[in-house]
């Protein structure tokens, strides 16, 4: 891993990358990487994200779990962008409108394949979902991506 200053710069650059991704214009969310191997995404569940039975659709669960685990893993890798190769979800409770938080944690790997997990806590403090992902190094340099390193 880089020096503490290098790690902090990498974390801020990843936060900027997240903010710059076009898909994140669809969600009210903000990524923070407090330390290497950890990520936090605070987000808002809106009724526009509900399925027909009046609770959050599975797409919001997957998106936030995958992103939280992904950024926890990519915080450990400073040169290349990671790709999700597999992700397992466990949806445990319906999620309603309000604030929620996804927290990601790197588990293992640094060379080619990394494993990380994440969980979501809803506005009432209850865990509503958890997941584990496998991420592989791509051939895409982080420094080549729009948003990586931009002031966020």
TrEMBL record:
Keyword vocabulary terms for this entry: Membrane, Transmembrane, Transmembrane helix
- Every Thioesterase domain range: 54-128
Q: Name one GO molecular function term.
A: thiolester hydrolase activity
InterPro entries named in the record: HotDog_dom_sf, Thioestr_dom
User: Is Nucleus given among the entry's keywords?
Assistant: no
TM helices/strands, residue ranges: 68-91
What CDD domains does the record tag this protein with? PaaI_thioesterase
Q: What is this protein called?
A: Thioesterase
């Amino acid at each position: 891993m880089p020096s503490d200053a290098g790690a902090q710069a990498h974390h801020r650059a990843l936060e900027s990358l997240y903010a710059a991704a076009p898909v994140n214009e669809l969600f009210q969310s903000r990524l923070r990487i407090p330390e290497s191997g950890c990520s936090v995404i605070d987000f808002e569940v809106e009724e526009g994200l509900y399925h027909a039975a009046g609770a959050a659709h599975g797409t919001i669960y997957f998106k936030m779990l995958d992103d939280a685990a992904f950024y926890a893993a990519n915080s450990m890798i400073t040169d290349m962008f990671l790709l999700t190769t597999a992700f397992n979800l466990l949806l445990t409770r319906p999620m309603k409108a309000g604030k929620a938080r996804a927290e990601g944690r790197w588990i293992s790997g640094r060379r080619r394949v990394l494993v990380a997990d994440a969980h979501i806590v809803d506005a009432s403090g209850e865990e509503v979902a958890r997941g584990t992902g496998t991420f592989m190094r791509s051939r895409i340099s982080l420094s080549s991506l729009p948003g990586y390193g931009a002031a966020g």
